[in-house]
Every structure is written in structure tokens, then in C-alpha cells.
User: Which sequence fits this backbone?
């Protein structure tokens, strides 16, 4: 396949080479997107409705079923959707429409209405709004459905406690060179989720007067998150003390510390080997020079 180049002289003062744009990648056969990607209902919205949109960005028509289920958050931040889970609000919502067909490029709006039970537990509850396309094929008696989910966070009126605890701060303990990896384990101990979003509210480590930010993340009620970051430019050699603090409303910040011994083992080892090689070479040359200068002994 040859590339066509066009030489143009529309401007007499300059010559320009025009390259045809690269081809646009083809859309996948199946692709659904939702907007927004997260819904939140606060106490004063508890009797109102919310909406989200489902967009078919694939190349085939999709028959979509909309359903509600529980959700759980795992330490890496991923979500799964079991039938039941702590703080579930799966039975509190109704959606319209529940079934619809989407042609490629089409958009459909889904209305979500919340109805709370008589005496719900105060705090935050969760439900996943799933837009599923049931599979028409089975592989070894396993049917694989495809879809996308919108997490819905519902806050029940009452005492809301926003509290998180740093349970672990881990490092390698020793570093011979390169970036230092930091791992923090954060547990939500309150009754609502907590967002660690920058630039002012993200999780930050301090080391030798430098700040190392962790990536943005959310920890849901009752969940534990494990997050990592890298200290890209630590000193060449140090006993580095690293500290992470989480502010707590009305209480002293919760602080954990870790220590990393930083020693450039490989450069120092290479330099030591080079010095030893030069030393032995000098000893060898010196011994040869001494033998050459030594006068031969006459026989007696």
C-alpha cells in the first residue's frame, strides 16, 4: 500500500508536504456506554427521580435489559454485582423503561425512582443499575451476558459519619536504586463513602520534605482500598522516613510512617570492583618492576 504525498505551492514563499490523515479505527461490534458514570442521591433528593443515558457505540443493534442489583467494592477498586451485599439498596429503586432496543449510534434515557423502606438504616447504601444485553449463545452450558453498570449512591437521612482509617503503609524496606513504590491500605470506617481527589483532597505521602501524591480513588462504606504510588526521584542514599496522614474531623490526624534504606548498591559495588582491579593491577606491575630491577646473584 503506497502513501500519496501532495506537493503544494499555494504560497509562493513556502513549499508544504501534505500527508493524508490516518484511517479512523473501526468501531467495535458491541459497545455500550452510560452517562453519567455515577449517580448520587442525597437525603433531600430521596423522593425525586434521577436519569442516566445508555448509548450504543457499537456496530450492531442491542436489545437491552435494565435491572438493579447489589454491588461490592474490592481492594483494587473494581466492583462486582452479587445478588446481596451489605448496605444494599437494590430493592429501593424502580426504572423506566426496563427493556428497549438500541440501534448503532442511538441513545436512550432511563428514569430512576427511589422509594425507601419504612425504617432504613441511616448512612449510605448502594445499588448497581445494570444495562445488560443477554447473550444468544451458550458455551459449555455457560451464558455470558455483556453490559455496563452505573453505581447509585443513596444517603439515608440521619447521622452521617465521614471517617477513614489508614491501616497499613508499606514499602520495600530497602532500595538499591530507581523509584520507590509506596502502598497504602485505607478502610472506610464511617457511614458514607470518601473521595480522595486532587489537588486538595487526595492522599499524599511526605518524605524528606517532598510530597508524593497517590492517584485519585474512592472508598465505599465498609470497604477497604489498596492504592500504590511511586516516589520517582528519591535521594541517591538515605535512611528515608515516609509519612502519610489522614485528617479526621475533630480529632488529630491518623498518621502512619515507614522507613526505607536507600543505598546505591550496584554503583558502589561497581566502583569497589574497579578500585580493586586497579589495586591488583598496580601490585602486579610493581612486582614485575621489582623483579626487573633485582640484580642477579653470582654463583658462590
Assistant:
Amino acid at each position: 500500500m503506497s502513501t500519496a504525498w501532495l506537493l503544494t505551492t499555494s504560497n509562493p514563499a513556502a513549499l508544504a508536504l501534505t500527508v493524508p490523515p490516518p484511517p479512523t479505527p473501526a468501531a467495535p461490534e458491541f459497545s455500550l456506554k452510560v452517562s453519567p458514570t455515577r449517580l448520587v442521591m442525597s437525603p433531600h433528593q430521596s423522593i425525586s427521580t434521577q436519569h442516566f443515558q445508555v448509548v450504543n457505540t457499537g456496530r450492531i443493534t442491542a436489545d437491552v435489559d435494565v435491572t438493579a442489583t447489589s454491588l461490592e467494592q474490592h481492594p483494587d477498586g473494581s466492583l462486582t454485582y452479587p445478588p446481596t451485599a451489605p448496605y444494599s439498596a437494590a430493592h429501593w429503586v424502580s426504572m423506566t423503561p426496563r427493556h428497549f432496543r438500541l440501534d448503532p449510534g442511538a441513545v436512550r434515557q432511563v428514569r430512576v425512582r427511589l422509594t425507601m423502606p419504612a425504617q432504613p438504616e441511616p448512612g449510605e447504601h448502594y445499588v448497581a443499575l445494570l444495562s445488560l444485553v443477554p447473550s444468544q449463545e451458550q458455551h459449555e452450558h455457560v451464558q455470558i451476558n455483556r453490559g455496563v453498570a452505573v453505581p447509585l449512591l443513596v444517603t439515608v437521612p440521619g447521622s452521617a459519619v465521614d471517617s477513614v482509617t489508614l491501616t497499613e503503609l508499606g514499602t520495600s524496606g530497602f532500595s538499591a536504586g530507581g523509584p520507590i513504590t509506596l502502598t497504602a491500605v485505607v478502610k472506610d470506617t464511617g457511614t458514607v463513602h470518601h473521595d480522595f481527589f486532587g489537588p486538595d483532597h487526595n492522599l499524599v505521602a511526605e518524605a524528606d520534605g517532598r510530597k508524593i501524591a497517590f492517584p485519585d480513588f474512592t472508598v465505599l462504606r465498609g470497604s477497604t482500598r489498596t492504592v500504590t504510588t511511586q516516589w520517582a526521584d528519591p535521594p541517591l542514599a538515605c535512611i528515608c522516613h515516609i509519612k502519610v496522614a489522614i485528617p479526621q474531623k475533630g480529632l488529630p490526624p491518623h498518621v502512619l510512617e515507614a522507613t526505607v534504606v536507600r543505598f546505591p548498591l550496584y554503583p558502589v559495588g561497581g566502583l569497589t570492583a574497579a578500585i580493586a582491579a586497579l589495586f591488583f593491577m598496580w601490585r602486579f606491575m610493581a612486582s614485575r618492576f621489582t623483579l626487573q630491577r633485582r640484580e642477579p646473584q653470582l654463583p658462590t
